[in-house]
Amino acid sequence: FKVILYGSLAKTGKGHGTDVVLKKTFTKPVDVVFDYENEHLPHPNTMDLFAIDLNGKITDSWRVFSVGGGAIEVEGESSIDPPEVYPHHTFEQIRAYCDENEITIPQYVERFEGAQIRDYLKTIWETMKNAIKQGLKASGVLPGGLNTERRAKILYQQRHIDETPQTKENRLVCAYAFAVSEQNASGEVIATAPTCGACGILPAVLKYEQDVHNYSDDTIINALCTAGIIGNIVKTNASISGAECGCQAECGTACSMAAAALAELFGMDFDQIEYSAEVAMEHHLGLTCDPVAGLVQIPCIERNAVAAMRAINAVSLASFLTTSRQISFDAVVETMYQTGKDINVRYRETSGGGLAKSYGHSRLRHAKRYKKK
After folding, report:
1. Which end of the chain is more exposed for a tag (fewer CB within 10 A), N or C?
2. Cβ contact 260:234 at 8 Å
3. Taking CA 319 as the corner, what is the angle to CA 173 and CA 327, rounded to the nearest 5 degrees?
4. Global pTM value
5. How far is the CA of 27 from the CAs of 1, 21, 22, 47, in angstroms?
């Protein structure tokens, strides 16, 4: 077999471990090629797979696009759409349906997904909690060559003697976000929410709130239903792929999901849930995806922690200002997508600009200074 990776898949493939996973997945030897030059692609995450016989002749081929959150599309099969679960595609449409039928968002989800969705979300929640638990216990340096230290355990244990409640909240929320993101960076099991790169935001917020307010797992599942609807709206109308729209599509979406989930936990109404999600996304607009060395470490791990805190702040703001808001969630999702299309390709998960570029120069300067001394 032979696999050719293009675009973002090629430029961050080593850092993401794409070649390692491919070699583990195929039962027979596979040659993984990184094509860094081809820029005329139908999608920034494009992959060609070839079956090759003993004479070196290609017997079959398959072009696949990784569209974010673990989902793929196959070239030539775009007209074959999967069964539509939800008949409504925007927050406005969903809200209108829920108002008309006098149901909540979690009830809306269960109506169209079926009762079994709660069992699935229970598994998701257990996966999230376990990632936090394991991440808080781990220490050492993350793989990949950046010498990035695991810091979740440090954050979790190193409290100040005169720590205020607000400082404690920030520290613990960040510790949980670091824990999950560091597990992801180590190749451990996490739940995409909506992607691997943004996997620490939603579980951090929900776990902290469960710890403090003793919410039942069943109540958390209601919040996950609401978070999922928000993520699905973004995926349907825009993108959750950093390669397509930058980090605003990943951490921005995750922050909106976490904010909406928290608003659901707090028993807020539709307006407040929407405003929470909108604020969370609006203030991630334009955020670049520039992972150093293609690894999901710098700035990704720390960014998850900051976005988790921002989600909580968005809900706090919504509790006061919802009645005077002017921007809808649907409008900010559309804006995010258009902004993402305008972002230079260097800042869309290619490691060709931003921190990915300047960090290397900075390390080189530090090394030269150290050598002179």
Report:
1. C
2. no
3. 100
4. 0.89
5. 10, 12, 10, 18
